[in-house]
Amino acid sequence: MTEEWLGWGAAARAALYGDGGFYRRPEGPAGHFRTSVHASPLFASAVARLLAETAAGLGTDTVGLVDVGAGRGELAAGVLAAAPAGLRITAYAVELADRPPGLDHRIEWCARLPQGVTGLLFANEWLDNVPLDVVEVDADGTARYVLVRAFDGAERLGGPVSGADARWLERWWTPAGPGDRAEIGLPRDLAWAEAVGSLAAGRAVAVDYAHVRGARPPFGTLTGFRAGREVDPVPDGSCDLTAHVALDACAAAGAPSGGPAPELLDQRTALGRLGVSGGRPPLALASTDPAGYVRALAAAGEAAELTARGGLGDFGWLVQRVE
Q1: pLDDT tens string for the chain (323 positions)?
Q2: CA–CA separation, 41 vs 306, rounded Å?
Q3: What kind and span of H or E run contains 102?
Q4: Distance CA 145, CA 202 (A)
Q5: E-state strands within the chain
Q6: Under 8 Å CB-to-CB from 141, ≥6 apart: which residues?
Q7: Is the CB of residue 146 less than 8 Å from the CB of residue 157?
Q8: Which of 25, 68, 296, 297 is deepest in the core (most CB within 10 A)?
Q9: Which one, of 39, 63, 35, lies nearest residue 49 by Cα?
Q10: Burial classification of residue 193, based on how many CB atoms lie within 10 Å of its CB (0-12 exposed, 13-18 middle, 19 or more buried)
């Protein structure tokens, strides 16, 4: 055991992505938590429709799909399966873990973002796993970095926040007083700006747990997940480490100068635009097509989960057009 104390950003980076880190384990993220991708194939179908819309807007039937933070490639595979006939797709799955066996051969597995793609870049629950530093205001009103010990998650305060981190806090998330915490989203802003910049043209979409300025949680959101349960965040590689995303800050960082303005909306609204709603099928269908009614009812239940208030429907969507 080491007594080394690290900032949360460095500790989480090693725990999630280092040798033997959480995201390199064979069971993958789906072994520990459930995302919209795992909740229903309706989600991948909606992304396929968004990809088709993007291609139509670009005036082409040849388009790229970049699945960032791809897990085991579930979303990319689902989009390929649901894509309309005639749409020619080059699919990329961006993930540090090794390519899973049996993945659709049409998906190119990448450790880094491909450059110059024309099409749709989709990052589902990626930014919340970009490691960041945590700060806490001490009794004298000074914001200090929170240091953590990897093997047990014990914390103590380190030095004062300074430089670019201090400027980010001043603009985006200023803790109110002693004991308050904040999570410095600058690494996520930079990651999102890089992702948007990798596209030649099309759309970049980030979907994540989110908050915006004016409604930041006073004590932060850093937590852990293991085997489907929320646990204390300990950076030892045994659990996921996640914190909600200051999606408005990412939007500002990824918006090209003089280009289209980014759009922030919730998942319920975004999926509604793409034809996903939790409305029940007409009861008359039960008598004319009983099997069809059962299928439609099951789909409505899945759609309701994806769009539920207080659940997946509250996820934030950041949509950035690239021209």
Answers
A1: 457 999 999 999 999 999 889 988 776 665 556 689 998 999 999 999 999 999 999 999 999 999 999 999 999 999 999 999 999 999 999 999 899 999 999 999 999 999 999 999 999 999 999 999 999 999 999 999 999 999 999 999 999 999 999 999 999 999 999 999 999 999 999 999 999 999 999 999 999 999 999 999 999 999 999 988 999 999 999 999 999 999 999 999 999 888 899 999 999 999 999 999 866 767 766 668 767 657 766 667 788 899 999 999 999 999 999 99
A2: 10
A3: none
A4: 38
A5: 5-7, 62-68, 88-94, 107-110, 117-124, 134-137, 143-149, 155-160, 181-183, 199-208, 210-211, 223-226, 229-231, 240-242, 245-246, 263-266, 316-322
A6: 177, 178
A7: yes
A8: 68
A9: 63
A10: middle
Number of residues written out for the chain: 323
In whole angstroms, what is the distance from residue 154 CA to residue 294 CA?
A: 51
Question: Which amino acid is residue 73, in one-letter code?
Answer: G
60 burial (CB, 10 Å; 0-12 / 13-18 / 19+) is: middle
Helix/strand/coil for 58: helix
Which residue carries 């909606």 as its tokens? 46
d(CA 47, CA 301): 19
Task: Give the number of other CB atoms < 10 A from CB of residue 131.
Answer: 20
Tokens of 123: 């990052």
Q: Is the dihedral of CA 16, 20, 24, 29 positive or negative?
A: negative
Q: Is 45 helix (H, G, I), strand (E, B) or coil?
A: helix
